[in-house]
Every structure is written in C-alpha cells, then in structure tokens.
Amino acid sequence: MRIALIARRFDPAGGGTERDLIVTAQCLAEAGHEVSVYTAESRSPQANWPVVRVGSRWPSPTLQLMRFAWEAPARARRAGADLVFSFARAVGADILRSGGGSHGAYLREARRWRGEWAAAAMRMRPYHRAQMIIERAAYRSPSLRCAIAVSELVRRQLIVEFGIEESRAVTLYNGVDLERFRPPDPVERERRRRAFGLDGSAPALVFAGNGFARKGLGSLIAALPSIRERPWLLVAGTDRSALRYARLAQRLGAGSRVRFLGAVTGIERLFQAADAFALPSFFEPFGNVVMEAMACGLGAVSSARSGVAELVPPALRPFVVHDPADASEIALRTAAMLQTGHRLAASARAVAEAHPWSGYAAGLLKIIDSFRK
C-alpha cells in the first residue's frame, strides 16, 4: 500500500510528534508499505523515504497553517497515495492521529495555568481560531476512517468534541525505547551523578519538558520548601519565562537547589542520575517523558490530567497528583516518592516494558490492515 504521512515538520532528530512520525514510517516500511512524507518544513536533507515540501512560506502563519491543512492531503492523493495518515490537523486524511488532544479542550484548560484573561485573549487570536476551524473540518471530513488517540483521555475528547463514532476512535498508546531508556548499574549511576554535579547524599528530582507553566513547574518549585528531604530539582527544557521561575525559586529560598539545564541532549543520562521524576501537568494528552523516566527505573510523580496516568499501576498511584495547582499536594506526594528511594524501580520499569514501540507498531498495522477487508 502507498501510504502518505502528513506532518507540519519533519525532523528525524526531533522529539515528541517528530519522533513518533519516524517510528511510524519505519514500522510501515518494514511491513512492506511504500511510505512518503508530506510536510511544511523539513529540517533534514536526508531521509529513508521521499519527503515532499508542501506550500511556500506565506507572510501570515495563520494562512500558511490553513493552506497546508487542505493542500497536503489533496497533493498526496494526486500523487497516488492509497492511504493518507496525518500527524497534523489536516482535512481529507483517512487516519488522523491526535497526539495533542483537542485544541478546543486545550484552550479551555489554558485558564488553569495562564489565568482567565490571558486564556480568553488566547482563544481570540486568529491562529488558535484557525486551529479549531481546521480541526473541526478534519474530524468531520467524509474521508476520515479512523481517529487514533494517544490515550483514552484524548479519545474521549475527540468523541465528545466532534461526535466521532466510538468504533472509529481508537486508543493507541505510544511506546518507549527500552534499550535507550534503562536503569543504570550502580557504577554507571554514580558516574552520571558526578557528571551532573550531584555529589553528596541529597536526592535528585528531575522535571523535563518545554512550556513550564502548562507542565506545572511553578507548583513544583512552590512545593520544594515543604519537602523535608531537600532535593535538588534539575529542570531540563526551555521556556521564554525560565528567568521568572528562577526568581520564584530564589524568593522561596530554594534557588540554590534548582538548576535550569536548558535543552538536554541524551536525557536518559539525566534520568539515570536521578532519584525520582516529577511532571505535575495541567494538560498532558499522554506524557512520553514520564514513560521514559519510568523505563530508567524512576518512580514518577505524574498528573491525573495526563494520559499516562491511565497506565500507572497500583504501586505508583499514590504519587499521582490530582490538583496540579496545589503545591501542598505535590509536596506530600513528592516527599513520599523520595522516601521510597529506588524500591519502586521494578514497578516503574514494568510499566514501560509493557509498552515497547513494537507493541505500538503491532497495533498500528492491525488498524491499517483492517482497511483492506
């Protein structure tokens, strides 16, 4: 089958959606399908599949967004694609994969971390209004045969928001690279800790992600003074407001214990140096990084508002944060996590082992093969 993959950006070195696209292309090619990629932006001159650039740059990002949404699937079909599989909001695809959830739900939830006025202003911007227009047209297109959600949380959003028949909305969890993300041996762990300047007995807590407000970094920093173990907090990721969070840590007397590392290459090395992971997000359709941390044997303080919480086993449920705005709850659950030390390493690793990328590939191929019947 000739399968066209649609993505706003093609970047083999990227993370998140870009990484998911590459894994999907690989598993489809290995199954004998002919794969091509249609994108608005390519950051790699080399690829294992044909990469087609769709649309020239327009002066308006909003108009460029809308043009790509309609043009990319149509161009793929004109080129002879038997199946159009979109990782972006695109109108006329056979399969839409939602890795970010409903944009409308995202905008409604934004008040929790941006505030009422800022969230209202955000909803009025043309770019976000265009996203909702495209999304509604995409999920109501007569071409749509299946909507793939990265979690049951997202699947329910799509059914409620767009009236998709339940039989056409499928949950397919992302996988995790179990070879790259693995628990370290004691010697390796000590080496990693020294590399990140973690000499001494204080435990190390890791936060990883861009978009600090949505991912609950403010609440996590506010929780630090109440955590008796006085952990280091290592923040991996970038945000234009990083200085504001550094100042918050200083005001709370925790500035010396919070390190902003920026973008970290080889994030698994940071996980292997740490004692626990925390991501108390306000809105997280899945949370790949939580799975990656657990694959490294870290207990994770996650959020009930993330899709990955659906996979948390009983041993880790006491560490799921129900209100990401409540610093006291985060402090309580994080302290309890740190007190367990690495006794939850086996439970955390088992979660990841139940969701390898091979499982994702098998589920995806089953969906695609069903179209042939």
Largest sheet: 7 strands, parallel
Q: What order do the strands of the largest sheet run in, or round the barrel if closed?
A: 3-2-1-4-5-6-7
- Corresponding CATH architecture of the largest domain: 3-Layer(aba) Sandwich
Relative strand content: 15-25%
**Distance between the ends:** 13 Å
Please tell me how large the radius of gyration is.
21 Å
Ranges with pLDDT <50 over ≥5 residues?
none
Q: What is the succession of H and E elements?
A: EHEEHEEHHHHEHEHEHEHEHEHEEHHH
Q: How many domains is the backbone divided into?
A: 2
- Rounded mean pLDDT is 93
CATH superfamily of the largest domain: Glycogen Phosphorylase B
**Helix residue percentage:** 40-55%
H/I helix tally? 15
Shape: globular
Summing up helix and strand content along with how strands pair, one would put the structural category as alpha/beta
Please name the CATH topology of the largest domain.
Rossmann fold
Total beta strand runs: 13
CATH class of the largest domain: Alpha Beta
